[in-house]
Input
Amino acid sequence: MRDTLYVPPMTMATIAVDAGEAARWMLHCHHMPHLSTGMMTEFVVTA
Output
């Protein structure tokens, strides 16, 4: 199982997720300058 995906600039990626439990999950960029300018989002899994 992999938890990091490289997405080159100006491209898109499709992922399949088995969240396993109800929770708020964060998707974010691992480059701190990008993260600090808002390159993150979340999705919410509800029971």
About this structure: The chain has a mean pLDDT of 80. Residues 32-36 form the longest helix (5 residues).
